[in-house]
From TrEMBL:
Homology family: Belongs to the metallophosphoesterase superfamily. YfcE family.
Keywords for the protein's UniProt record, in alphabetical order: Hydrolase, Metal-binding
Recorded name of the encoding gene: yfcE
Organism: Pontiella agarivorans
Protein name: Phosphoesterase
InterPro entries hit by this protein: Calcineurin-like_PHP_lpxH (IPR024654), Metallo-depent_PP-like (IPR029052), MPP_YfcE (IPR041802), Phosphodiesterase_MJ0936/Vps29 (IPR000979)
Record carries keyword Hydrolase: yes
Amino acid sequence: MKLFFISDIHGSLSALNAALDCFRQEQADRIIILGDALYHGPRNPLPDGYNPAETARLLNLYKDRIIAVRGNCDSEVDQMLIEYPMMETYAIVQLEDRKFFLTHGHIYHPDEHPPLCAGDILAFGHIHLPMAEKRGDLFVFNPGSISLPKENNPPSYGLFDGGKLQVKTFAGEVLREVAGVG
């Protein structure tokens, strides 16, 4: 199964459209949203193409293929617009003998997380920085942000396919990669 990861959309319709173009090109099976879907948050600037209502409408077209967790900028009001569950602080996806622990990162993050088994993947957003690495027995993965990337990184998304975790730009350039996953 091919998983497509996005995080920190922050209501940017233009960034979401670009990411969904990549999702279709990658021919992934599921979209994993690691929080902060609609609201930009008080510490962030307004992202380009800020349109939370249209962002929700577009995401709802993919509701049967989305697994989502709540970010620190997501609220119960957002859930009123979104037609798939998005209010849990974490989710667990089991693929064969690998477990993906999905979270936004404001509660669980690489240094503070529930017990995970060797080879499991901790996938999170929140920091807006791409990451794909092995830390001890765990794989740590962050797709970056599609709308408000930090530290001069380009907008990016993540992909799990063929035992690899990759962070890629919208142009398809691999920014980070770790193999040997699953």
